[in-house]
Amino acid sequence: xxxxxxxxxxxxxxxxxxxxxxxxxxxxxxxxxxxxxxxxxxxxxxxxxxxxxxxxxxxxxxxxxxxxxxxxxxxxxxxxxxxxxxxxxxxxxxxxxxxxxxxxxxxxxxxxxxxxxxxxxxxxxxxxxxxxxxxxxxxxxxx
Length: 143
Known about the structure:
The protein is an alpha/beta fold. The protein has helices spanning 4-10, 12-35, 42-52, 62-67, 85-88, 104-115, 127-133, and strands spanning 38-40, 55-58, 74-75, 96-99, 121-124. The chain has a five-stranded parallel sheet with strand order 1-5-4-2-3.
């Protein structure tokens, strides 16, 4: 341990890389909690839909949505969300669950809705892929 400062001084670049990787790892593990968005698993999504009448908003494009989506989900592409906030106002009290292909976009867009004053905003952790991995049903077509 007494030679650690000497090692760090001799290998400053490698030590900096180690610190950067550790920070990114911590951010990856705990970033969801720090963002204020509740990331939920598919079983929690079904509970919210069935018991609290929450609305699922699918942020994928229309083509991906038509290939398979959660039953009764509302399709609003991620770039149109800000223009469609009036469509979501009626679901404000029951809760809104965002989903996308992987879960990354839904977290960002859920944050947008929280800044607009919505309280019950959730994001499906892992996106539609996690829904399919849980062997939950998807429906096809566009309403």
